[in-house]
Amino acid sequence: MDDTDLIRRVEALEARLREVEDRAAILDLIARYGPAVDTCNGEAVRDLFADDGTYELEGWFFTHETMDQTVTTDLHERYVAVGSAHVMSLPTIELHGDDAVAINYSRVFIARDDQWIVDRCAANRWDLTRTTSGWKVKRRVNRLLQGTPASHELLAGEVPPPVR
Amino acid sequence: MDDTDLIRRVEALEARLREVEDRAAILDLIARYGPAVDTCNGEAVRDLFADDGTYELEGWFFTHETMDQTVTTDLHERYVAVGSAHVMSLPTIELHGDDAVAINYSRVFIARDDQWIVDRCAANRWDLTRTTSGWKVKRRVNRLLQGTPASHELLAGEVPPPVR
Amino acid sequence: MDDTDLIRRVEALEARLREVEDRAAILDLIARYGPAVDTCNGEAVRDLFADDGTYELEGWFFTHETMDQTVTTDLHERYVAVGSAHVMSLPTIELHGDDAVAINYSRVFIARDDQWIVDRCAANRWDLTRTTSGWKVKRRVNRLLQGTPASHELLAGEVPPPVR
Fold first, then answer.
1. pLDDT in tens, B5-61
2. What is the pTM of this model?
3. ipTM of the predicted structure?
4. Which class would CATH give A3-155?
5. Which chain C residues are within 8 Å of B3, Cβ to Cβ?
6. Is B157 left (phi over 0), alpha (psi -120 to 50) or beta?
7. Given B3, B39, B87, which is nearest A105 (Cβ)?
């Protein structure tokens, strides 16, 4: 084997390794959402999002600037006071160079009496982007799973229409 | 260092990288099950399975040919109409070259009133195989967790007897 | 390119690959907890922990020596008899060479009538260490999510005080 072959193999390794690193970084980014909101750490939530990142739920819309308000809604403050777990499921991840799309389920478990009930169960689409500070969320859309077409479209991979 | 050493190191990297790529591909394969069934996309379910792939649950048995019927059972159609989340837990994965075994939990969350209840909670064993179209499921066995020996055997890694 | 450059690139690949391998091994280690306890396999639980590993829950404290007793408490035996799923969520993972910290949620789903209820929902901090037998748990701390400061501190990444 001459050096040219070896260089090509090393280059191929570098490209492939970058993809598995990207997947690991995206898993970690999504996993960090729960501990951030369950400790009411608005700055930690904001840090998951790109500078132009947005988070849309039925009834709420947050931009990077207002992202810390995700943890100060009445509903959220009640959740954390009684005991809450915002649990993100294993996502599917599609990589496209410096962009990626992840789809998963989120559930909010809330303490009630001696058990925990599931107070929210939603489909999530995460549009992600590579920034100089690592992978960040450009847009997260969250839709409650109540049999609506909008929730099924999200799970099916359709790009949700812009909010405004 | 001479070239032979360097080639050996590159070869070792290639083999190790392949293993982490395999793990990432298997995580993604398993994560794609939920969105496929919760959108009643029978073709997407079928696409997760190898040409000779099977899916066994107590009371149902699907082959590659009938796999799209996973989303047309009465139970499933009721699930999706009210709002459902088929959530796959983080699996354990054992790689054996071109085959692999994953074990995890699946739960079906169903909307009821203003909450979601857990209508199914099961142990799963996934026998996986590398095909020319990537990793696919050769056999998935799903057993409800109701204290039965069969469910414990599945979680313990025992190979379930063939259906027929 | 001369050989020195190529060697440097191979070395960089080796270091980066090791990190993604570490992450994959830690995911697998955490995923193995559920099947171990839900089959009452005390030895499998012990095998997840380093020789000086400990596991702390409110009301219980296990060392490597007593780790098999995690599956023989009254509560646990009742869980497994009726049907239980100890499900670990996707963790955040911070690597520091031969040590790592993972934070996630655990939930215990228990069969009741025709459904499963969530009987425990807890924050978990896993201090992990690389051993000659692979990654192991040095210390796991589990705190029920009931709105307590101790549970929030755990999720926020604070190191819990030693038990004794």
1. 999 999 999 999 999 999 999 999 999 999 999 999 999 999 999 999 999 999 999
2. 0.97
3. 0.96
4. alpha beta
5. 3
6. left
7. B87
Chain C residues contacting B, CB < 8 Å? 3, 6-7, 10, 13-14, 17, 20-21, 24, 27-28, 30-32, 34-35, 38-41, 80-85, 87-90, 109, 111, 114-118
Inform me whether the pLDDT recorded for A34 exceeds 90: yes
Torsion sign across C-alpha atoms B38, B41, B44, B48: positive
Is the pLDDT at C67 greater than 70? The verdict is yes
Domain spans of chain C, in order of start: 3-155
Alpha carbon distances (Å) from C49 to A6, B50, C53, C67: 41, 37, 5, 9
pLDDT of residue A164: 64
**What is the number of alpha carbons within 13 Å of residue A137 lying toward its C-beta?**
29
Closest Cβ–Cβ partner in C6, C16, C121 for A10: C6
Please, where are the H alpha helices in chain C?
Answer: 3-31, 33-38, 42-48, 74-82, 149-155
Q: Indicate the average pLDDT of chain B.
A: 96
Q: What is the CA radius of gyration of chain B?
A: 18
